[in-house]
Automatic annotation (TrEMBL):
EC number: 1.14.11.-
Gene this protein is translated from: asnO
Enzyme class: oxidoreductase
Name of the protein this chain belongs to: L-asparagine oxygenase
Any GO MF annotation of the entry: oxidoreductase activity
The species this protein was found in: Haemophilus aegyptius
TauD/TfdA-like domain sequence ranges: 139-212
Assigned keywords, A-Z: Oxidoreductase
InterPro entries with a match to the protein in the record: TauD-like_sf (IPR042098), TauD/TfdA-like (IPR003819)
Length: 236
């Protein structure tokens, strides 16, 4: 899987505080975590989101001493498929079609609060950051996470709720029922992904994927937790 990502020109990374520093994360239900909205959960629908949204966007200036940016890519390899359980993706550009230009401009303002996902050890949040950013090429990238984003501004709250409503419109979703051995890679900052809730049986036949983060370029050495590992990125 690592070789596959390297062949795409993607540099494999893992983030400090998550997955014990291991590159490959098992996305499979764990007993006792059924109701958590993380990759080990199952009962609850994992609504559209970008992974690691509390870090910085790739064309964003450093803020709050956050040295590294949100993963550029997310790769999922299927080991076991469970009937009726889909990994769905939707394009950010499709969500933005429902918004007026002035609404997109509000989402580009630094008025949002992002909580660190529950898969990380400890709680953290970043404040006064934009949900949306327009890149130099005119395209948009986002740090949207349905479960972990909020704002204290009433006018921004209205637009955020409109964005959320658009994101959960399942007509926009591309549902992937990956078979064992199938793999998918997508741009984490231009695509949202989701997983419907399901009942785990814990009998060895539950949905089981392997996840790997990637960046388009090898990060600078000062971004790494230690000089001994060129894949483990700092988050503080």
């Amino acid at each position: 899987m690592v070789s596959y990502c390297l062949s795409l020109g993607v540099y494999p990374v893992v983030y400090e505080g998550e997955n014990e520093g291991k590159l490959l994360r098992h996305v499979v239900p764990k007993q006792g975590l059924e109701n958590q909205i993380i990759s080990y959960g199952s009962n609850e629908t994992f609504f559209p989101h970008v992974d690691n949204p509390d870090l910085r966007l790739r064309e964003e200036d450093m803020f709050n001493d956050v040295p590294t940016y949100i993963p550029d890519t997310l790769t999922l390899l299927c080991l076991k498929q469970q009937e009726g359980v889909a990994t769905s993706i939707l394009l950010l550009s499709d969500v933005l079609k429902d918004l007026a230009e002035e609404e997109k401009s509000l989402l580009e303002e630094s008025k949002f609060i992002i909580k660190r996902p529950a898969s990380f050890a400890g709680e953290a949040e970043v404040r006064d950051v934009p949900l949306l950013m327009k890149c130099k090429d005119g395209s948009y990238i986002s740090r949207f996470d349905y479960h972990n984003i909020d704002t204290e501004s009433p006018k921004h709250k209205v637009v955020l709720e409109k964005f959320k409503k658009s994101a959960i419109d399942q007509d926009k979703w591309i549902s992937l029922y990956l078979k064992p051995g199938e793999i998918v890679t997508f741009d984490n900052q231009k695509t949202l992904h989701t997983r419907n809730g399901f009942k785990a049986k814990f009998d060895g036949n539950d949905r089981w994927l392997i996840r790997l983060f990637g960046t388009y370029d090898k990060p600078l050495k000062e971004y790494f937790v230690s000089s001994e590992c060129n894949h483990h990125l700092r988050t503080k």
